[in-house]
Amino acid sequence: MTARIGVVTFPGSLDDRDTQRAIRLAGAEPVALWHKDKDLKQVDAVVLCGGFSYGDYLRAGAIARFSPVMEPLLEQAKAGLPVLGICNGFQILTEAHLLPGTMLRNNHLHFICRDQKLRVENAETAWTSDYTAGQEIHIPLKNIDGQYVADQRTLDALESEGRVAFRYLDVNPNGSNNDIAGVTNEAGNVVGLMPHPEHAVEPLIGTGRTDGLPFFTSILKKLVNA
């Protein structure tokens, strides 16, 4: 039996079906989770997908953080459940304090949609082990609240502990501190990033490359070999 990876849909989610397809292409079984679910249906990992949950009212991710599904997710993530937050999912993870820092409006105050060059900084997490540290990849990016910020103490800790997972290359598209595109928690089971790996899993879509597929093959291999 293959691994079962849940994908949470909130009101306003956009990329749940794309994420399910990416999981399926990697060889795992996607499991649809609804924001009102009070259990995670015994999945082996969870992805919080991109979109504009609850219309991004108050702040991006601020309302979704209190959805019923987040209660078991918080509990299980702290116990080691692998969780990936993509774009709005990353924002939700910072609002839930599963990842440090927060997201602000892009420094140029415009929505951005582009293929973005990244460098893999940490290839030892549950979601990045099929990459190599220092590898350069291209992943689609689309957001307006994508500027990652944190206080200096937090930034210093992220850098010294190797918890910056991905960094923007060539151009910083949103003013993020230290060119940070994604981070991980101390245990390496929770990862968040603003770019969209689910849009880079087939040659005919996204960047025309498959640079995003290793996110999903990484977690599959970890779960199968556990």
Secondary structure elements and pairings:
Blueprint: E1 4-9, H1 16-26, E2 29-34, E3 45-48, H2 70-78, E4 83-86, H3 88-95, E5 102-104, E6 112-120, E7 136-143, E8 147-149, H4 152-160, E9 164-168, E10 180-184, E11 190-193, H5 213-224
Parallel strand pairs: 1-2, 1-3, 3-4, 4-11
Antiparallel strand pairs: 5-8, 6-7, 6-9, 9-10, 10-11
Helix pairs in contact: 1-5
Keywords:
alpha/beta, ligase, 226 residues, 11 strands, two-stranded antiparallel ribbon, 5 helices, 9-stranded mixed sheet, Rossmann fold
Spatial strand order of the main sheet? 2-1-3-4-11-10-9-6-7
Strand content: 25-35%
CATH topology name, in short, is: Rossmann fold
- Helices, by number, come to 5
Secondary-structure-based class equals: alpha/beta
**Integer average pLDDT:** 96
- Calculate Rg over CA atoms: 16 Å
Q: What helical percentage do the residues reach?
A: 10-25%
* CATH C-level class: Alpha Beta
| Low-confidence parts | none
Task: State the end-to-end CA separation.
Answer: 13 Å
> What is the H/E order?
EHEEHEHEEEEHEEEH
CATH architecture: 3-Layer(aba) Sandwich
Shape: globular
Count of all domains:
1
- How many strands? 11
Please give the largest β-sheet: 9 strands, mixed
CATH superfamily: Class I glutamine amidotransferase (GATase) domain
Pathway: Purine metabolism; IMP biosynthesis via de novo pathway; 5-amino-1-(5-phospho-D-ribosyl)imidazole from N(2)-formyl-N(1)-(5-phospho-D-ribosyl)glycinamide: step 1/2
EC number: 6.3.5.3, 3.5.1.2
Catalytic activity: L-glutamine + H2O = L-glutamate + NH4(+); N(2)-formyl-N(1)-(5-phospho-beta-D-ribosyl)glycinamide + L-glutamine + ATP + H2O = 2-formamido-N(1)-(5-O-phospho-beta-D-ribosyl)acetamidine + L-glutamate + ADP + phosphate + H(+)
Active site: 87 (nucleophile), 196, 198
